[in-house]
Amino acid sequence: MMIVNPGAGPVEGASLDMAVAEAKMLRGWLADELGDAVVCGRNPDADGGGRFGFTYRCGRRRVEVEIPGVDLDLPQYEMFPPRFYVDGSSWVPGLAGGMVLSHLRGEA
């Protein structure tokens, strides 16, 4: 049996700049939810396949996130956007932020 996970493959045309912009937006949203204690740093060891590694921390909790380095609002990503990886699990962009938040709250 073959399992297909659309958006989980390599991300063509990705750039670090686009991933950093997305990481900053995610950090801002997390700070709105958790306060200014949320810190985001780069984890270049996790880079690969058009996704770029970031570590989010809040207090003693931390979560590793691989962010696709493309503009997720482009029409070609409407049906199958490149997935984020949150501590190794694949998530569509609309759910990835909530998973990061859950990890930082200790709920996941």
Q: How would you sum up this structure, described in words?
A:
This protein is of the alpha+beta class and 108 residues long. It has one domain. 30% of the residues lie in helices and 24% in strands. It has two helices and five strands; from the N terminus they run αβββββα. A five-stranded antiparallel beta sheet has the order 1-2-3-4-5, with helices on one face. Strand 2 (51-58) and strand 3 form a beta hairpin. Helix 1 packs across helix 2 (93-105). The radius of gyration is 13 Å and the shape is globular. The model has no long low-confidence stretch (mean pLDDT 93).
Beta-strand portion reads 15-25%
Poorly predicted runs are none
Largest sheet features: 5 strands, antiparallel
Number of strands: 5
| Structural shape | globular
The run of helices and strands is HEEEEEH
Distance between the termini: 29 Å
- Tally of distinct domains: 1
What portion of residues is helical? Answer: 25-40%
Give the C-alpha Rg.
13 Å
Total helix count? Answer: 2
| Structural class by secondary-structure content | alpha+beta
Mean pLDDT: 93
| Biggest sheet strand line-up | 1-2-3-4-5
